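**User:** Everyone, produce a chain:

**Assistant:**
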Amino acid sequence: MKNTQLKLRLVFMLVLQYAAWGAYLTSLGRYLGNSGLGPQIKWFFAMQGIVSIFMPTLMGIVADRYIQAQKTLSLCHAFSGLFMLGAGLYCMSAAGNIQFAPLFTLYSLSVAFYMPTIAISNSVAYNALGKAGMDPVKEFPPLRVFGTVGFICSMLATNFVKIGGVAMQDSYTQLLSSGILALILSGYALTMPACEVNRGESKSLAEAFGLKAFSLFKDGQFAVFFIFSMLLGSSLQITNGYANTFLGSFAADPALADTFAVKNSNALIAISQASETLCILLIPICMKKFGIKKVMLMAMFAWVFRFGFFGLGNPAWPGVLLFVLSCIVYGVAFDFFNISGSLYVNENTTPDIRSSAQGVFMLMTNGLGATVGTLAAGKVVEACDVFNTPSNWATAWYIFAGYACLVGILFMIFFKDPQKKAR
């Protein structure tokens, strides 16, 4: 009974964690484009990667050594929510004359505090399950499904709910919604089971600041794992930044302007997150049967299909089915990489550096990888001149697919599936 109650508490935490993100992540590009900030879309999504280079690691250090992880989670969401509310209120006051600098500043401060919470919420959940005598590898993935459910519900609300006659996906209200959800979680996080901190004397400066997790790079297998995590992480924000904008570009064609994929692009993209809910359940089975290498290879080649189907599809029947297939394979592309990688790090590190190690994983994927990938994707989009020639979107998607394929082949060659080791 106690275990069931704990799981329900973790479910609510995860729902809020990802609902705050889903409120704007896939629709922000559309809103920015409608507000005359289309050329700056890449910077908004690159900023999520830029702050992930250092913030998850720094806040992981804080959670490991100074402030209990559940309290660190609460503080991060408090600041994230306040700055996101500020961004939404600025857009409301600007009355259609939105300037890049103030909006980008408030948004950047918000995501700087949000991005660390992805890893810290995982650590809080792992800690709670471990204290209750449960196996995180077995028990966490089904709970994490509800995080995706929260993301989907938030996306659908952004797509279908209209405020003042305007859909939230076309309005600043998506930012207000995200801020409110983050503030709710800030309070709720304080009710989570207490996590331990390691305040003992350190033998070195690196240990004193929690940087011991970087010693994992001395292990050849871990180093290769992190490097390819960075390379694959380059794919993470591409469709978040450009899929909705891409689908909206078909509105220029009168024959396609009223199709479901164009008018309800956020709802169509939500199929991607629905796919996540099913694929997360497969992770424990696949991890045990195939190992981390094969699971990550599945993710890498799923990205090839994710991008390729976008290039081949169109909103009319039956071309829209390729968009649907792209969304379905996204579950494998995202989950088999992010969740399996996080579990791998958790299984192969000691408790004193676990949150820091999760921060390093975030740094390599959502930090360095996503930053480089988003900016490079922006250059590809600009080179293809898609905003003036929408038919060139297909070329951009094929380039992204080719990159993912190359990374997968190199990973197959250089990464050896390591056995679990006690460190």
